[in-house]
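ZP: hey, is the NAX complex queued? I don't see it on the tracker
AM: it wasn't, my bad. submitting now with these inputs:
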Amino acid sequence: MAACDQYTIETIGIPSLVLMERAALETTRLIEQLLTPTQVLVVCGTGNNGGDGLAIARMLHVHQISVTVVLLGDQTHASAQTKKQLQICDYYQIPFREELPEDLAGYDLIVDAIFGIGLSRPITGAYAQVIQTLNQAQASKVAVDMPSGLNANTGAIMGVAFQADLTITMAYRKVGQLRNKGPVYCGLTVPVDIGIYRNQSI
Ligand SMILES: NC(=O)C1=CN([C@@H]2O[C@H](COP(=O)(O)OP(=O)(O)OC[C@H]3O[C@@H](n4cnc5c(N)ncnc54)[C@H](O)[C@@H]3O)[C@@H](O)[C@H]2O)[C@@H](O)CC1
Ligand SMILES: [K+]
């Protein structure tokens, strides 16, 4: 998948931010159609999966759906696209918090945009605690691209993983969604077309 992203961005020339906007548009559309949420908690990391989450939060906000954004990690280390999405959220005066709200009972939807296919090591510490707390909430749960903590290649749990009801995944299903713990942690998996394509050699 990373090779397909790279090919689309570097060889075909579609900018990364365009793909992110398409990912967020498709995800927001499905969330609104399938779940009609009213109070949404969007939990973001600082990689591009988090950038998807920030764009989704902004699109829900523009559609007058109440959103709370939690940004985990050091935003000075955020990817370029995620920094851009933070600036756009600033324009819309969408505030973000660095920790989960005490009480999650008021949310009818939680969106997991902490880690996607860039997860590279087991999840520990504050990230692990956040995921465990989210898993206990009553709200519906949507994962952006991958449930955070699920290995995209193997379907193994990397310490802890977000337990999704619905996973909206970009372009193609990942191997890890179909193997091992993948089906259990993804819930229903829906691939969406965001303009990423593979060439014959990938
Ligand atoms: N490349 C692109 O242009 C696109 C990417 N997209 C999204 O971007 C995601 C991939 O983005 P990235 O490659 O930035 O990766 P992620 O956003 O999945 O995560 C990468 C970040 O997490 C950190 N990290 C990894 N494992 C960790 C752990 N266990 N504990 C703490 N930090 C950890 C890494 O150091 C890095 O900063 C996709 O899953 C998809 O959601 C989409 O927006 C479509 C376009
Ligand atoms: K995720």
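AM: back. The CA atoms of residues 53 and 113 lie 5 Å apart.
ZP: great, adding it to the tracker
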